Amino acid sequence: MYTPLQLAKKYIGYYLSASNGKGHGIHSPFLFDFVKFVLNDRKDYDVYHKAEAVRKQLLKNAEIIEVEDFGAGSTVFKTKKRKISDIAATSLKPKKYSRLLFRIVQYYKTQNVLELGTSLGVTTAYLASGDNKPAVTTMEGSVNIADVAKANFQQLGLNNIKIQTGNFEKTLHPLLQHAGKIDLAFLDGNHRKIPTLKYFEQILASSHENTILVFDDIHWSREMEEAWAEIKEHYDITLSIDLFFIGIVFLRKDFKAKQHFTIRF
């Protein structure tokens, strides 16, 4: 993992070099629509308030649970016993990006959604709250964390979420055998290069031309940057968008050549 100072320097470089995020100079109609109607959608959706109310509750929850971690591990916690409030403070995706994921689901009307890395379920709630009520399958390594997420889904009245617990190395492949074609996948469960690329390839086999893949923390470490570079150049990827903290790729076949964009967000 990069140090905070290294990450800050990288972010400044990204911010100064990225396009301004207003859509100016973008010649791809598909990307222009994404920027205008998804990235810059300023509507105040009801889910924003409901999901953030749950986040606030979690940030105040002093209950201690024991956590299993199968990913890159935590640089913050040195013990498996952790306060829910501490997990919420360090592991939940900021609302800016959770809301963006909701808007992707909302705009593209994705039906079959897969999330690797449930955490406490706030981002999952955003993914499950599109008007079309997508079927969301979310995967979490820690059973105790998954139990907290389940309680949050019940509180929000979300019954279109299925949660799979266990190590992704053992659970992802069998799940994909019965999942059908994936419309949207959000990968936030492992911050190492080899597993990330492996999960990408597995999900790719269950994808279609309009599938959208979103990767978390693509600049979190050198190996995550290496994974992101390989994903962008994969034969099936035709469009990539780098928003620094997340990366989005599309598999659409109507582009004449690969297109890679870095956009300020």
What's the SSE blueprint?
Layout: H1 4-17, H2 29-39, H3 46-59, E1 64-66, E2 81-83, H4 84-91, H5 95-108, E3 112-116, H6 122-127, E4 135-140, H7 143-156, E5 161-165, H8 168-177, E6 184-187, H9 193-204, E7 212-216, H10 222-233, E8 239-242, E9 246-250, E10 259-262
Helix pairs in contact: 3-4, 8-9, 9-10
- Biggest sheet descriptor: 8 strands, mixed
Uncertain ranges: none
Rg, alpha carbons: 18 Å
Shape: globular
Q: Tell me the strand order in the biggest sheet.
A: 5-4-3-6-7-9-8-10
Number of helices: 10
**What order do the SSEs take from the amino end to the carboxyl end, as H and E?**
HHHEEHHEHEHEHEHEHEEE
Overall strand count: 10
How much of the polypeptide forms β-strand, as a percent range? Answer: 15-25%
Derived from helix and strand composition plus strand pairing, the structural class reads: alpha/beta
